[in-house]
Please model this.
Amino acid sequence: MTEKVLVLDIDGTLTNTQKEITPATKQAIRTILQKGHKVILASGRPTPGMHRYEQELKLDQYGGYLLSFNGARIIECRTGEIIYQRILPLSIIPGIYRFTKEHGCGLITYFGDNVISAYEPDEYVLLENRVNGMPIKVVDNFKEYVDFDINKCLITVEPELAEEYEKELREKYGDIVSVYRSEPFYIEIMPKNVDKATSLEQMLKVIGQTRENTICCGDGFNDISMVRYAGIGVAMGNAQPVLKEVADYITGTNDNDGLVQVIDTFIMNA
Model:
């Protein structure tokens, strides 16, 4: 048996629209874990926001990994050890804060189990709170408060303005940080040259695997790099059109157990 590495985005990929792992998907993943294949959860979520799914799939028992913050941190589930991490330069914070204040955007980062918000939460910050189950702490002076290591900042913006603001931010700060959208209303500010593919490459070296044996599944803008990188890149049926264009295979939607189809086709019956 050739050991495979299955890399899964969470929202819109592993989970359905109710943010749940369906019984059929959960069983299919547990089956391949029991057969010795590896599973990595790769998400833009902060690490605490991934623990629920780590526990459901028993990744601590089977030796899985969490690739959080779009790749800025990788944790081994069995030990909780951080095996790879990249942080943002704190020098970027005043400029990002000023941009969001001038444009009426939301701005958050993360510390421990808390979401740290520069302003009163908008609907998209509240969504981040609900999805991750992390309490929001609104601070008076974000640019002074954030004096600790952070893996990313998240800017929230109305979808019709996101592409324009993403471009502006990239022109201003693209030489020192990475700027891209993970959802139509989220703009990620990440350490330079950090994305899911870059971190996955480091991860595969740690576990002694290759990209040829890797299957990456996603649905969003921030999954493009890893879907391109993978031996087999999979777009969910509900994926953004641009992701479907770069994928090797398009499976069913997240509400119709698209991952079961992937597991059956490329792992169980390969």
